[in-house]
UniProtKB/TrEMBL annotation:
Residues 61-124 form the Restriction endonuclease type I HsdR N-terminal domain. It comes from the Bacteria. This is Type I restriction endonuclease subunit R. Transmembrane segments: none annotated. Gene3D superfamilies: 3.90.1570.30. One of its GO terms (molecular function) is DNA binding. It holds the Pfam family HSDR_N. It comes from Acinetobacter wanghuae. The keyword Ribosomal protein does not apply. GO terms for biological process: DNA restriction-modification system. InterPro entries: Restrct_endonuc_type1_HsdR_N (IPR007409).
Amino acid sequence: MQDFINRLKLHIEHVNRVGQHCATEETTKQALILPLLDILGFSPYDPTKVLAEFAADFPGVKATERVDYALYCNGQPVMFIEAKSYTSNLTNHAPQLSRYFNSTLGVTIGVITNGREWRFFTDLINPNVMDEKPFLVIDFTKHKAEELTQLAEFKHDNFHVEKLRYFAEENQYIQQFKAVIKKCINEVDIDFVRYVAQQANISRQLNTKFLENIQPFVKQAVEKAISDTVVKGLSAPTIITAQPIEQQHEALETFNRDAEIQINIPQDIIHPDNERIITTIDEQELHRIVSELFPTHELTAKDTESYYSVLYQNKNNRWLFRYDVNRKRPTVQFIVPIDDQRRIELDRAGLEVLNNGQIYLDKPEHIYRAVGILKDCLNFCSNDENFKRSVNS
């Protein structure tokens, strides 16, 4: 990641230095857009990764219209890029990109850029229909490299459709929530005043007249709270004092009781009938990730002394994968064989495959890198033909 950030730093300096000289679309492509694609692992010199002037039979699109760049993974187009000159306003060009996007089912990301600003779109609202608003906007003239680590999600060796969809959804929600919070803080409307008064247990009837009377006080309180938080963050060093476990638990229980809320802290779960079966935090996280990736399927977890499985419809013989955390390095074994094509996919994703077909899975979130194989496992487990007993058995 540090090497990636260092390359972004150099690219940001490059954009700010030569951007104003990119008066045409072609110059912008060569000087600003293709260098970033190279940083992301989509080499412009490799036509199996970057195909310029991509043409296809797009319904409603003129035969002369072409996508500036189609980015490929595993022989399939996964991202379209519409390029404009450095000085272009990108707002009016999104409909053209959406026509390409909506007509190609395999493409999940649409990008429009002038080399300085990059707008990323997907289809969160309606499947296969590009959203009107981007889920991510990056401006190289306003951001620092350390703030652009999100771009790593689009690297060729890290490009996974479901993971990007989850990332896009998360990013969109955060931006929406951030906008609402900023509006509440800046405007301090009556609804926000009512909420603060309720949380403060004000022993008065919260009618409109009373709320309007205390509205200036709430606004002052918000401004002071923000100021105190900023000052504290800038001036006070962070001091972490070690406490005995008993004191930590006591403090947590007191906080929960006073706030009247329940906080769920992840922890290992010991089987009530067999203390040798311990469902670790990593195993629980694996089940959570896979369940979020395939929310419409019934996926249950089963733990044994030897391995942890995720089952399809709670059937013991229909396991998507078996996860073994008892080794020095945890491994995962999928129900489908790791043939040459799947091995290439795993290698490209940065996962190490053993001779016996098992894969090292050092962190639960690395399962995102094998989403395609997880889909193969799900398709295999959901096909009854794969589990019929043979006539000779």
